[in-house]
Design goal:
Radius of gyration: 21 Å
Family: Belongs to the DegT/DnrJ/EryC1 family.
Distance between the termini: 28 Å
Largest sheet: 7 strands, mixed
Pfam families: DegT_DnrJ_EryC1
CATH superfamily of the largest domain: Type I PLP-dependent aspartate aminotransferase-like (Major domain)
Number of helices: 12
Strand order of the largest sheet: 1-9-8-5-4-2-3
Number of domains: 2
Shape: globular
CATH class of the largest domain: Alpha Beta
Protein name: DegT/DnrJ/EryC1/StrS family aminotransferase
Organism: Streptomyces prasinosporus
Keywords: Aminotransferase, Pyridoxal phosphate, Transferase
CATH architecture of the largest domain: 3-Layer(aba) Sandwich
Bound molecules: pyridoxal-5'-phosphate
Strand content: 15-25%
């Protein structure tokens, strides 16, 4: 965390992506130029995928053009067909990836502490048409991996995780991506570790990994013909170089964000109108977002605080709305916890070396707005 930096009048973004050290990136780029390969499963991509194995917890890691494609291809590779129970509180990409596969998202409620899929709500929605559960590690907070696996195993369902914001998160020391049948992560520039745009699928199933490799490259088989209905979801060599470089600084980025998030919590959590989502003791979090829930009794305050910060040139995000509800999705039961979260969640500016004075300024304005 820096003590100097942004000045009072400068716009404060929601996140400032970490960038690779230029000498390191130059050396990786030199190696790409020498190889003569810019994309199509090149040597830099292979190095990146190998480096990700330990971080993600499986030997099968297939990098993709972005996290949305990773989720789309994971579901396709597992041959899902029918209804998929998923979270009513998530980024639209979760729902869109399912719809692009012709799957029917069935929205279940989330649990109140970390806003991740509630196994009890899922259990009430399982029917003979259900083929899978797609749970989200919302804001990087792990879903109930044990409860969901128990349900999936009992009913013979595939269990897929939209782990888009969860790189670097561990549950009892195990990478959160090492659970279920597959996880899809995002390496978008806003994430704790990125490739500008990018993503990856990791899975314990060799055949699913092979299928994702094929599907990301137009479904082309060994002899160059399209064996199945794929797409172009390849990650190129330059993206892989950025990823390789930033993977080395992931721990530093997470440590910086943890420190910064703790400052917000220290400055604001004595206010009865604010509650921060915070990792449990079993979880080593990645502090991907500073997620505040803002509410005075029954009245949500997130819109008000968002507007006040905006007037002072400070970006914040009202994740997530329910705009996709009803568009090809089913929501058979009420989802009161997700509905409340959609009203009162506000993400505050956070990145690894966010200046302390910026944190103080944001916290001061938030405190003023809610009191
Ligand atoms: C929960 C969730 N799923 C999917 C995505 C999509 O990832 P990408 O932007 O890499 O396509 C995001 C992006 O932020 C996300 O938060």
């Amino acid at each position: 965390m820096k003590d100097d930096g942004l000045h009072g009048s400068e716009r404060v973004p929601l996140v400032r992506p970490r960038v690779p050290a230029s000498d390191e990136l130059t050396s990786l780029l030199d190696s790409i130029w020498r190889s003569g390969r810019l994309t199509n499963d090149g040597p830099m991509l292979r190095r990146f995928e190998a480096a990700l194995q330990k971080e993600l917890g499986w030997d099968n890691v297939v990098a993709t053009a972005n996290g949305t494609m990773a989720l789309q291809l994971a579901c396709r590779a597992l041959r899902l067909d029918g209804e998929v129970i998923t979270s009513a509180f998530t980024f639209p990409a979760t729902i869109q990836a399912l719809r692009w596969n012709g799957l029917v998202p069935v929205l279940a409620d989330v649990e109140p502490r970390w806003l991740t899929l509630d196994p009890a709500s899922v259990a009430a929605l399982i029917t003979p048409r259900t083929c899978a559960i797609v749970a989200v590690h919302a804001f990087g907070h792990p879903a109930d991996v044990t409860g969901l696996q128990t349900l999936a195993s009992r009913h013979g369902l595939a269990l897929v995780y939209d782990a888009a914001p969860a790189v670097g998160v561990r549950v009892d020391g195990v990478p959160v991506t090492a659970f279920g049948d597959a996880s899809a992560v995002s390496f978008h520039a806003t994430k704790v570790m990125h490739t500008v745009e990018g993503g990856a699928v990791c899975t314990p199933h060799d055949d699913a990994a092979e299928a994702v490799r094929r599907l990301r490259n137009f479904g082309l088989g060994e002899w160059g013909g399209a064996e199945e209905y794929g797409t172009n979801a390849k990650m190129n060599e330059l993206q892989a170089a950025v990823g390789l470089s930033l993977l080395r600084t992931l721990d530093a980025e997470v440590a910086g964000r943890a420190q910064a998030a703790a400052v917000y919590r220290e400055l604001l959590s004595n206010l009865p109108t604010i509650r921060f989502l915070w990792p449990s003791d079993a979880v080593s979090g990645n502090y991907a977002y500073a997620v505040a829930r803002l509410r005075a009794g029954a009245a949500p305050l997130a819109d008000k605080v968002h507007a006040v910060l905006g007037r002072h040139g400070i970006d914040s995000r009202r994740y997530f709305s329910h705009r996709y509800r009803g568009r090809g999705t089913l929501c058979p039961h009420p989802t009161p916890v997700a509905d409340a979260a959609a009203e009162d969640v506000l993400c505050l500016p956070l990145w690894g070396d966010i200046p302390r004075r910026t944190l103080m300024r944001v916290a001061g304005l938030v405190a003023e707005a809610v009191s």
